[in-house]
Amino acid sequence: MEDHNKQVINNEDILLRDVRSIIESARSNAVRSVDFCRVQMYWQLGQRIFEEEQQGKERADYGKYLTRNLAKRLEPEFGSGFGVRQLEQARQFYRTYPIANTLRSQLNWSQYRRLIQIDDPDKREYYELEAVNNCWTARETERQINSMLYERLLLSNDKESVLAVARKERIPESPQEIIKDPMVLEFLGLHREASYYEKDLESTIITHLTEFLLEMGKGFSFVARQKRLLLEDDEFFADLVLYNRLLRCHVVIELKTGELTHQDLGQLQMYVNYYDRNEKLPDENPTIGILLCTAKNDTVVRMTLPEDNQTILASQYQLYLPTTEQLVKEIEEVKKMAQREIE
User: Fold this and answer.
1) Cβ–Cβ under 8 Å, residues 200 and 238
2) Residue 249, by phi and psi: left (phi above 0), alpha (psi -120 to 50) or beta?
3) What is the pLDDT of residues 314-332, one digit of tens each?
4) Which of 92, 51, 54, 88 shows the shortest CA–CA distance to 69?
5) Which class for 89: exposed (0-12), middle (13-18), buried (19 or more C-beta within 10 A)?
């Protein structure tokens, strides 16, 4: 028994030595790339811990015992970044990404730490790719995951096409592949129960323009607000005008703080027609119109617009992050609606 205890202590000393070497090596290379060195360090820690854990796999609780004892000895020397939770995350990181050369240098440890919490490999790959493609910060990555971007895109697209766009295997061909419904505008800071006007919503969007364009989707840039449209002696003003470089077209957005009406859709159609006939260049695609409202009646939308409509979209927005239950319910409603249309 005494010999066994000595062997355990020796193994832990060897493990501690190896872990110290990994940490110190990573710190010495920090001048080159602090963030990616940190990613590599935690991957190596996870690998070493997992390998040691496998040697004692006959003990069901050996993994927890190992990280707990290791943390007790590492934290006083290297700080809180090497506590039990962090070491367990490192182990999970290695298990999720067992091949070192698949790690992306554009992502930092905060982003990977969030990605490994996603069990669905397709969903995890989507956020990983889009974080790289769009240069998301850790905060933006967290926000997109929490707002369920992936699930919202799946409401109007199949999984294969969503992943193909993220993998850059294809370019989006339709507005539905980019524009989300619902849109989540929690970053505006407007409260659901407070009364606000369309001009307040518009001003707040302009204040948070970067976040709004990120929420809109890929390839959007700002063109104008309250764009003046002169039709003979009558003046009209489009709330927001954007341009999408992937779809190669203008996007006219009308904001509504209530439920949409067929009159709203008719007005937006007029703005789209104006842009197509007066602003669109010959090599550009038809203008897209988006009616952004707090509530919509899909039947009204279908009955108001032509059956082959591809340019006028109604998207509901909400001022809070959706829950999983809300998204599941909405997905089921969309599936039922699609089934009724087939029948």
Assistant:
1) no
2) beta
3) 888 888 776 767 766 766 6
4) 88
5) buried
User: Rounded to whole angstroms, how far apart are CA atoms 210 and 225?
Assistant: 15
Rounded to two decimals, the pTM is 0.78
Phi-psi category of residue 45: left, alpha or beta, with phi > 0 → left and psi -120 to 50 → alpha: alpha
Contacts of 4 (CB under 8 A, 6+ apart): none
What is 53-89 written as a DSSP string?
HHHTTTSTTHHHHHHHHHHHHHHHHH-GGGSHHHHHH
216: Cα within 13 Å, side-chain hemisphere: 27
Beta bridge partners of 230: 235
| Surface-to-core class of residue 332, CB atoms within 10 Å of its CB (0-12 exposed, 13-18 middle, 19+ buried) | exposed
- pLDDT at residue 281 is higher than 90: yes
What pLDDT is recorded for position 320?
A: 79
CA 51 to CA 129: how far, in whole Å?
29
- Residue where the block lists tokens 């409603």: 333
Q: Are strands 234-244 and 220-231 parallel, antiparallel or unpaired?
A: antiparallel
